[in-house]
């Protein structure tokens, strides 16, 4: 009976530690489960889509004077950025702050911080924008943003100044 209980305990321990990532020998994991790998993109590669795609949804919403989906998409960016390790910490922090935005004006200010963090990260690591994504700059807000399309769609001033800005 004791042997069966011991075997069950080891099996549960193996499951808690993620048997697929080290098996029973990985007992030292402290029941934290499998760890997330840090994967900083190589220079010359594209900015990861799991950052870009939710970011673009936020940009479109703000340009349309809406906060629909902003919090959820900012949360997705924070999760994706945390997997990129220390170089993406400012993206993670800015995305979490954006997820807590109180209203449209606050969301736009926090989107500016997120945009600057992503732009700095991409420039510093010499990452390319994915196909069809361009970086624009708003001279009024003094902030960059990424967007799809060929017509400026300003997220900082929305419909009141939709075409304010220029592509880099």
Task: Report on the architecture of this protein.
- With 168 residues, the chain is mainly α.
- It has 2 domains: 1-35, no CATH class; 49-167, no CATH class.
- It has helices at 2-16, 49-63, 70-82, 89-99, 104-124; strands at 133-138, 143-148, 166-167.
- A 3-stranded antiparallel beta sheet has the order 2-1-3.
- Helix 4 (89-99) packs antiparallel against helix 5.
- The longest helix is centred in the C-terminal third of the chain and has 21 residues, at 104-124.
- It is globular, with a radius of gyration of 21 Å.
- The N and C termini lie far apart (72 Å).
- The model is unreliable at 1-36 (pLDDT under 50).
In short:
The protein is globular and about 40 Å long. A hairpin with a 4-residue loop joins strand 1 (133-138) and strand 2 (143-148). The chain has helices at 2-16, 49-63, 70-82, 89-99, 104-124, and strands spanning 133-138, 143-148, 166-167.
What topology does this entry show?
Layout: H1 2-16, H2 49-63, H3 70-82, H4 89-99, H5 104-124, E1 133-138, E2 143-148, E3 166-167
Helix pairs in contact: 2-3, 3-4, 4-5
Distinctive features:
single chain, 168 residues, mainly alpha, 2 domains, three-stranded antiparallel sheet, 3 strands, disordered N terminus
């Amino acid at each position: 009976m004791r042997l069966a209980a011991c075997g069950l305990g080891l099996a549960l321990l193996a499951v808690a530690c993620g048997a697929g990532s080290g098996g029973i020998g990985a007992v030292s994991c402290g029941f934290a489960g499998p760890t997330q790998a840090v994967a900083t993109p190589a220079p010359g590669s594209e900015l990861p889509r799991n950052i870009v795609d939710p970011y673009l949804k936020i940009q479109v919403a703000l340009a349309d004077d809406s906060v629909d989906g902003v919090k959820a998409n900012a949360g997705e960016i924070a999760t994706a950025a945390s997997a990129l390790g220390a170089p993406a910490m400012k993206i993670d922090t800015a995305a979490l702050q954006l997820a807590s935005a109180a209203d449209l004006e606050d969301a736009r200010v926090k989107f500016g911080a997120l945009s600057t963090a992503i732009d700095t990260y991409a420039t510093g690591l010499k990452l390319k924008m994915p196909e069809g994504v361009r970086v624009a700059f708003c001279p009024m807000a003094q902030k960059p943003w990424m967007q799809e399309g060929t017509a400026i769609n300003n997220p900082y001033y929305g419909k009141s100044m939709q075409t304010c800005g220029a592509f880099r």
